[in-house]
Description:
- By secondary structure, the protein is α+β, with helices and mostly antiparallel strands.
- It folds into two domains: 2-75, Glutaredoxin (3-Layer(aba) Sandwich), CATH 3.40.30; 85-171, Glutathione S-transferase Yfyf (Class Pi), Chain A, domain 2, CATH 1.20.1050.
- It has eight helices and four strands, in the order βαβαββαααααα.
- The longest helix is centred in the middle third of the chain and has 31 residues, at 85-115.
Amino acid sequence: xxxxxxxxxxxxxxxxxxxxxxxxxxxxxxxxxxxxxxxxxxxxxxxxxxxxxxxxxxxxxxxxxxxxxxxxxxxxxxxxxxxxxxxxxxxxxxxxxxxxxxxxxxxxxxxxxxxxxxxxxxxxxxxxxxxxxxxxxxxxxxxxxxxxxxxxxxxxxxxxxxxxxxxxxxxxxxx
Length: 175
């Protein structure tokens, strides 16, 4: 059985949980509280090189870290993964965008507000790049329903829980 170490309140963990549910894959969710240091115990880094969640144990003693790597692994051979080379590249484009242009500004803002209750000092420097990322997403989705390939894929999953209306609220100090 698949085992996932994570916190369902985390956007990066949620997207893994979402895909597992969409695929109907049986799994065990092991709540891992990073705020309490559970990913920094001596045992955890042996499983996850960077001590972060989510972490997938896909076979006994075989672990895979990083949410987008986990999504790619789980989606292989399903309708959620790319269909040809160009569509796969488009999916990767949006997965990289999420990690480098979206998550550092919007995902972390949500974390600081909703989970840590410390918005002001953390949000200020994230507002401008956060809005810029949302503008890129809005512009891309203006004439299409999906990020890549003209259909739902793991590129959508990377943005799950981060769709545009709610994400603008994060940058204004709301959760």
